[in-house]
Amino acid sequence: MTASFTLIADTADFVVIDKAAGVHFHSQDGSAGVVAQVEAALARKLYPVHRLDTPTSGLLLLANSSAAAAKLSQLFAEHKVEKRYLALSGHKPSKKQGTVEGAMAKARRSQWKLTRDKDNGHNNYAITQFVSAALQPGIRAFLLRPLSGRTHQIRVALKSVAAPILGDSLYGGASADRTYLHAYQLTFELDGQQHQFTCPPILGEHYQSSELTAQLAQWQAEPPVWPKRR
Q: What is the pTM of this model?
């Protein structure tokens, strides 16, 4: 395992990695981002089709060609890629499960916020479904299903239900050794073949608890029944 990513799958059409928390997606400040680092490690050009925020760890999909990138980007655009995220919070949410939705708008200090607008004119409407379970006193796990892919979407959604992500200081999360948001699962069909990748988080003190391991096993054995898409 490198400091920035672990290779999960390398197929003819795409690569899947587990991005480490705190690693930039794009190259900046003279440092190579995770995409550039994977390209260097595999000695070929790759084509991003979605992205993860810097603090977020987990599954990231990169295409091996422009043709594959076009197909995968279309799947994301048509909401045909099922994504699951795992988050922890040090706060009890205002509701244990449900749907958070609204238009995303820029706020102060590089933050985003949810508005009640159905469409703010910039195609930035966000929908996030979630379930949660108490792990131990002061720690709650959230399994989230985003139905859109907006900047900071999950971080804002959990703040809106009074459960900011543990370690996410930008949105009021309690101090921790990392931001506890992880891209846990990707499921999609490409050219008639079904693909599913599941990657439990590796790093983070609170991600190592036996209670979380048991809860993930329960969610795998009995997947949540999500509301139907509109």
A: 0.94
Angstrom CA distances, 223 to 14, 130, 144, stand at: 27, 12, 12
Find the CATH number of the domain harbouring 218: 3.30.2350.10
Asked if the structure places residue 43 within a domain, the reply is yes
Tokens standing for 57? 């760890």
What's the pLDDT at 3? 72
Total domains in the fold of the chain:
2
Asked whether residue 93 falls in the same domain as residue 73, the answer is no
Catalytic site includes residue 53: yes
Kindly name the residue from 10, 18, 29, 53 that is annotated as catalytic. 53
Residue bearing the bigger pLDDT, 145 or 202: 145
- Structural domain contains residue 109: yes
